[in-house]
């Protein structure tokens, strides 16, 4: 019988003040060292290197290193706006964080679509505009088109910022196995941001999901008792029953999931099972994103990644989110197994 003394993530109830939401608008830890030089463009997909080259030009334009006074003045009057379109796992976030790093921490803001909508909810629209208008560049990762209200809100926010001379950069996910779907996703994005559509330059980033090159969902499960032994006594480790954690997530706003992971270095999940409830699945996707941002290894008990999201969920309107979560969680599970092997 294993005596487990490891704390539980389901016991953490974080309080996140508005000023922290602003302070957290920086590239995640996973991409702390990302740069255009460290992006490994696949020569089989020329659009990857073409995007690197174009974003390098944008960074030079925004930092004033691309020309004289009149060129910099023109850049301030017509700030660039770029949209990276492509499947998950092709390095769009790497490229977006590289752009943010190139422009500089003080001059750029970086966050996901959800983080910006949460910021508006915490500060109010006018104060959010005032805070972000001080930046040279605002980056929006994982632009969502699922919620019409949030999409209209973000469109208005981006329009206000662009009118104040702030440069914009955004990414979104399309499905890599659907021929031509990337074009339609780009058209959807441009339609939804309405008045700003003419300002955005769309760059297609083709390629394969680099995490999926070695990832399979079968064989990812670890016996529950082995998960418990692996995390017990480990500094910064948390251990949770999957269903208990899912219930806890329903009582915590997704904007606080990142703060909930403060100090967490390893997460063990026991009794993992296939999900069939859409709300539970979407909340878990957000948690996976925050775990991935922070490079937190995960050990999966129960059935692991096998059939984690139901066939109906995978084939539904949120398919791209679930596939991205499987890709990212698979990568974190590989890191977790490495921790397990090292302790053996």
UniProtKB/TrEMBL annotation:
Record's keyword terms, sorted: ATP-binding, Cell cycle, Cell division, Nucleotide-binding
Source organism superkingdom: Bacteria
Biological processes, Gene Ontology terms: cell division
Pfam families in the record: AFG1_ATPase (PF03969)
InterPro entries associated with the record: ATPase_AFG1-like, P-loop_NTPase
GO cellular component, one term: cytoplasm
Listed GO MF terms: ATP binding; ATP hydrolysis activity
UniProt xrefs under PANTHER family: AFG1-LIKE ATPASE, ATPASE N2B
Annotated protein name in UniProt: Cell division protein ZapE
Species per Swiss-Prot/TrEMBL record: Sanguibacter inulinus
Name of the coding gene: zapE
């Amino acid at each position: 019988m294993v005596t487990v003394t490891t704390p539980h993530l389901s016991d953490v109830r974080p309080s996140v003040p508005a000023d922290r939401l602003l302070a957290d608008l920086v590239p995640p830890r996973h991409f702390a060292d990302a740069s255009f030089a460290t992006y490994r463009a696949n020569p089989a997909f020329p659009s990857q290197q073409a995007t690197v080259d174009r974003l390098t030009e944008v960074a030079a334009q925004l930092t004033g290193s691309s020309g004289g006074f009149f060129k910099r003045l023109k850049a301030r009057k017509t700030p660039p706006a770029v949209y990276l379109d492509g499947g998950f796992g092709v390095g769009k976030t790497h490229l977006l964080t590289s752009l943010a790093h190139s422009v500089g921490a003080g001059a750029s803001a970086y966050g996901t679509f959800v983080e910006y909508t949460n910021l508006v909810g915490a500060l109010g629209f006018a104060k959010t505009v005032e805070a972000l208008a001080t930046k040279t560049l605002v980056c929006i990762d994982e632009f969502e088109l699922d919620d019409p209200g949030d999409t209209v809100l973000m469109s208005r926010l981006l329009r206000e910022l662009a009118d104040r001379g702030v440069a914009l950069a955004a990414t979104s996910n399309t499905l890599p196995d659907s021929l031509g779907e990337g074009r339609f996703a780009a058209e959807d994005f441009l339609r939804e941001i309405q008045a700003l559509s003419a300002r955005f330059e769309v760059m297609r980033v083709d390629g394969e999901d680099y995490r999926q090159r070695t990832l399979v969902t079968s064989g990812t499960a670890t016996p529950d008792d082995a998960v418990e032994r692996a995390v017990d006594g480990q500094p910064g480790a948390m251990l949770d029953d999957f269903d208990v954690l899912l219930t806890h997530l329903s009582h915590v706003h997704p904007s606080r999931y990142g703060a909930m992971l403060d100090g967490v270095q390893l997460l063990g999940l026991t009794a993992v099972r296939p999900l069939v409830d859409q709300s539970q699945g979407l909340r878990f996707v957000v948690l996976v994103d925050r775990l991935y941002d922070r490079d937190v290894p995960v050990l999966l008990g129960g059935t692991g990644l096998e059939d984690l999201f139901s066939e109906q969920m995978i084939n539904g309107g949120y398919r791209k989110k679930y596939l991205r979560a499987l890709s990212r969680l698979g990568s974190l599970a590989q890191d977790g197994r490495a921790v397990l092997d090292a302790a053996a």
